[in-house]
Amino acid sequence: MKKITVIGAGNVGATAVQRMAELEMGDLVMLDIVEGIPQGKALDLMQSAPLMEYDSHIRGTNDYNDITGSDVVVITAGVPRKPGMDRKDLLKINSNIIKDVCTNITEYAPDAVVIVVTNPLDPMTYLASRVLDMPDNRVFGMGGMLDSTRFATFVAMELGCSVKDISAMVIGSHDNLMLPLPQYTTVSGIPITELMDEDTIQELVDRTINGGAEIVKYFKNGSAFYAPAASITHMVESVIRDSKRIMPATAYLKGEYGYDGVYAGVPAKIGREGVEDIIDLKLSDKQKELLTKSVVNIQSSIELLELE
Ligand SMILES: NC(=O)c1ccc[n+]([C@@H]2O[C@H](COP(=O)([O-])OP(=O)(O)OC[C@H]3O[C@@H](n4cnc5c(N)ncnc54)[C@H](O)[C@@H]3O)[C@@H](O)[C@H]2O)c1
Ligand SMILES: O=C(O)C[C@H](O)C(=O)O
């Protein structure tokens, strides 16, 4: 059995653990700073196993000793935004949490592949990679995966077709400057540019960009977690099964798309080693311009990080 740890037993973390247990992806450890919460949620999930028929063991803990030997560690620890806030408003508070969590991962699970989920996603992934002191390919973020599943959902709603035939691609930052790519978003191989007019596509693009805020507005006191947990599960599965699936990931760029030394969302091959390859897509001039804005925005957040 593989060992998967999720740090943060809140909405996203606990839902991801539930999804991964139900798929029997491995034995799971759920760690949180609050005493009792991970233990109680883990026990509750274990008591679902006879009915849902999974043999994954789930341990809830506050002790980093329990993450030793993890193959994958997912970081969901952190504060979610409330209506009226940007993800960027969480930079300071969540930086401190990422530093604490990553210092412990370095000590207790130095061989794991680490997937960052905490917002603001792109600078938090950069920060995690600096604290973790691991090869850059073993640290990446989940953001574009969620944005792409949202885009796919809206395309299916618009066309009245099955979501199963849709493959969507969103790159760039996981914020208002993300870049949904219609020419690489297909229905059974047919680009949506062949199936809808420009105005309709733009409406779906705008809804995707505002997808997180749309949910925050409903909840009032937190953010999305079902689709984020599904996105985490999809990425972790590709690592633990070494499936080498290609999906959007917040990866460390070393010249790809013309950028160096920054984390941003790009299509990547995900396997046992983490990010095993990055696909350099051909973009239109307008898309290149928008990607630059997105990356410059990530860089400006990185500059605000207090790195030793
Ligand atoms: N990247 C994405 O696509 C994406 C999607 C959804 C949510 N998020 C982000 O994920 C984070 C978590 O969201 P949520 O809805 O689960 O929030 P939540 O408040 O439900 O859960 C967060 C958990 O983190 C724990 N925590 C805080 N500090 C900790 C520490 N130092 N060590 C261990 N645990 C700690 C809290 O006790 C809490 O249980 C937020 O920052 C949110 O913005 C990102
Ligand atoms: O919107 C948020 O703050 C949470 C997450 O990044 C999302 O896109 O749902």
From TrEMBL:
<dbReference type="Pfam" id="PF02866">
    <property type="entry name" value="Ldh_1_C"/>
</dbReference>
<dbReference type="GO" id="GO:0006099">
    <property type="term" value="P:tricarboxylic acid cycle"/>
</dbReference>
<protein>
    <recommendedName>
        <fullName>Malate dehydrogenase</fullName>
        <ecNumber>1.1.1.37</ecNumber>
    </recommendedName>
</protein>
<dbReference type="InterPro" id="IPR015955">
    <property type="entry name" value="Lactate_DH/Glyco_Ohase_4_C"/>
</dbReference>
<feature type="domain" description="Lactate/malate dehydrogenase N-terminal">
    <location>
        <begin position="3"/>
        <end position="141"/>
    </location>
</feature>
<feature type="domain" description="Lactate/malate dehydrogenase C-terminal">
    <location>
        <begin position="146"/>
        <end position="303"/>
    </location>
</feature>
<feature type="binding site">
    <location>
        <position position="81"/>
    </location>
    <ligand>
        <name>substrate</name>
    </ligand>
</feature>
<keyword id="KW-0520">NAD</keyword>
<dbReference type="GO" id="GO:0006089">
    <property type="term" value="P:lactate metabolic process"/>
</dbReference>
<dbReference type="InterPro" id="IPR001236">
    <property type="entry name" value="Lactate/malate_DH_N"/>
</dbReference>
<feature type="active site" description="Proton acceptor">
    <location>
        <position position="174"/>
    </location>
</feature>
<dbReference type="Pfam" id="PF00056">
    <property type="entry name" value="Ldh_1_N"/>
</dbReference>
<comment type="similarity">
    <text>Belongs to the LDH/MDH superfamily.</text>
</comment>
<dbReference type="GO" id="GO:0004459">
    <property type="term" value="F:L-lactate dehydrogenase (NAD+) activity"/>
</dbReference>
<feature type="binding site">
    <location>
        <begin position="117"/>
        <end position="119"/>
    </location>
    <ligand>
        <name>NAD(+)</name>
    </ligand>
</feature>
<dbReference type="InterPro" id="IPR011275">
    <property type="entry name" value="Malate_DH_type3"/>
</dbReference>
<feature type="binding site">
    <location>
        <position position="119"/>
    </location>
    <ligand>
        <name>substrate</name>
    </ligand>
</feature>
<dbReference type="GO" id="GO:0030060">
    <property type="term" value="F:L-malate dehydrogenase (NAD+) activity"/>
</dbReference>
<feature type="binding site">
    <location>
        <position position="150"/>
    </location>
    <ligand>
        <name>substrate</name>
    </ligand>
</feature>
<feature type="binding site">
    <location>
        <begin position="8"/>
        <end position="13"/>
    </location>
    <ligand>
        <name>NAD(+)</name>
    </ligand>
</feature>
<dbReference type="InterPro" id="IPR001557">
    <property type="entry name" value="L-lactate/malate_DH"/>
</dbReference>
<keyword id="KW-0816">Tricarboxylic acid cycle</keyword>
<comment type="function">
    <text>Catalyzes the reversible oxidation of malate to oxaloacetate.</text>
</comment>
<feature type="binding site">
    <location>
        <position position="87"/>
    </location>
    <ligand>
        <name>substrate</name>
    </ligand>
</feature>
<keyword id="KW-0560">Oxidoreductase</keyword>
<feature type="binding site">
    <location>
        <position position="94"/>
    </location>
    <ligand>
        <name>NAD(+)</name>
    </ligand>
</feature>
<dbReference type="InterPro" id="IPR036291">
    <property type="entry name" value="NAD(P)-bd_dom_sf"/>
</dbReference>
<feature type="binding site">
    <location>
        <position position="32"/>
    </location>
    <ligand>
        <name>NAD(+)</name>
    </ligand>
</feature>
<dbReference type="InterPro" id="IPR022383">
    <property type="entry name" value="Lactate/malate_DH_C"/>
</dbReference>
